[in-house]
Amino acid sequence: MQGEGSVKHMADIKIVIIVAVSENGVIGRDGDMPWKLSTDLKRFKALSMGKPLVMGRKTFESVGSKPLPGRPHIIISRSQCFDMPGVETAESLEKALDRGRAIAEETGVDEVCVVGGGEIYRQALPLADLLHVTHVETVVDGDTFFPPIDADVFEQLEETAVPAGEKDNYPTRYAIYRRRRV
Question: Can you give the pLDDT at residue 3?
Answer without folding.
Answer: 38
